[in-house]
Amino acid sequence: MYEGKKVLVAGGTGTIGIPTVKRLVERGAHVTVVALDDPAYARELLGPKVEFRRADLTSPDECHAVMEDQEFVFNLVGVKGSTGIGTSLAASYFVPMLLFQTNMMDAAFKAGVSRFLFVSSVCAYPQGELHTEDDVWNGMPKQNDRYAGIAKRVGELQAETYLLEHQWDAVRVIRPANVYGPYDDFNPMTAQVIPALIGRVLAGENPLVVWGDGSAVRDFVFSEDVADAAILALEKAPVNVPINIGSGQGVTIKELADTVASLVPGKPSIEWDTSKPAGDPVRLLATERAQELLGYTPSTSLTDGIARTIEWYLSNTDLANRRKGVVNAGE
């Protein structure tokens, strides 16, 4: 499917983007990455076989410019960060996210792109324990996820409107769980839980203080597994049918913290701050649809994924620290 195709990867310098680009190059695609990163930094990440274009995708004109002559598009651009970012920087978080996704999809429609991957999120779901794809409209997103969740719902609806009015059948939709891996944001002030824990313990925090009592259950999925799913979804997924991409297994925060502590140098002890909120008791994605429609099952265990993430960070700390800030960076 990808051999010789012109493929645009928006946000291709991020956690999901880098492994997605690698897979596309391996399949013979002519890949262009667009992001806000410094070109020298981006080319260091991407290598010589990938064209890089720096653009502000909150601008409709710049979206139309990068879309010219592209056949397939992976829209991996987003604003990724800790729960606190979605509150303390609410407008800086919400508004660019809407602009990125709206402008990119509209530009793709007007350019006649034949396949377009929209990456939604677990944040789109209302509060609950096990999320199946058809449950997304059964209530508002959880309070601390409402900005990202509503933005992602709007993107899915945007795709539906083009299909209904113009019969544009290009869009495929995936909803990943909590993604982690190399090229993530490891800044403890902005990062999500796995890279935040890794960044803190490698900076010397001991004991490692973790919020809650460790009983909360979450679904974590390795970035390379999400990249595999993205490649499959653009090829095999039905039009505008959302597909969950999760690990298929629940992990307690205690298991997560113990795994990180066991794999980093120094083996720090762990303390639990039960005065701090722990979030929903259970939050998992049903994965049957991904198996049925894509033949997709993630291949990376949590232990292996965390070990590979730590190894990458230890070998690339300077590169990781040059990653753009959370509000401006692609996912």
Enumerate how many helices there are, as a single number. Answer: 12
**Helical content class:** 40-55%
* CATH-derived architecture of the domain at 6-183 and 221-248 and 282-299: 3-Layer(aba) Sandwich
The third-level CATH topology of the domain at 6-183 and 221-248 and 282-299 is: Rossmann fold
- Biggest β-sheet description: 7 strands, parallel
Using the coordinates above, name the CATH class of the domain at 6-183 and 221-248 and 282-299. Alpha Beta
Query: What's the CATH H-level homologous superfamily of the domain at 6-183 and 221-248 and 282-299?
Result: NAD(P)-binding Rossmann-like Domain
N- to C-terminal distance: 25 Å
User: How big is the Rg?
Assistant: 19 Å
| Secondary-structure element order, N to C | EHEHEHEHHEEHEEHEEEHEEHEEHHH
* Number of E-state strands: 15
**How much is the average pLDDT?**
91
**General form:** globular
Determine the oligomeric state from the structure: single chain
Task: Give the structural class.
Answer: alpha/beta
List segments where confidence is low: pLDDT < 50 over at least 5 consecutive residues. 326-331
For the biggest β-sheet, the strand order reads: 3-2-1-4-5-7-12
Measured by DSSP, the beta-strand proportion falls in: 15-25%
Topology:
Elements: E1 6-10, H1 17-26, E2 30-35, H2 39-46, E3 51-54, H3 60-67, E4 72-75, H4 85-88, H5 90-111, E5 115-119, E6 130-131, H6 146-166, E7 171-176, E8 178-180, H7 193-202, E9 208-211, E10 217-218, E11 220-222, H8 223-236, E12 242-245, E13 251-252, H9 253-263, E14 270-273, E15 284-285, H10 288-294, H11 302-315, H12 317-321
Parallel strand pairs: 1-2, 1-4, 2-3, 4-5, 5-7, 6-15, 7-12, 8-11, 9-14
Antiparallel strand pairs: 10-13
Helix pairs in contact: 1-8, 3-5, 5-6, 7-9, 7-11, 9-11
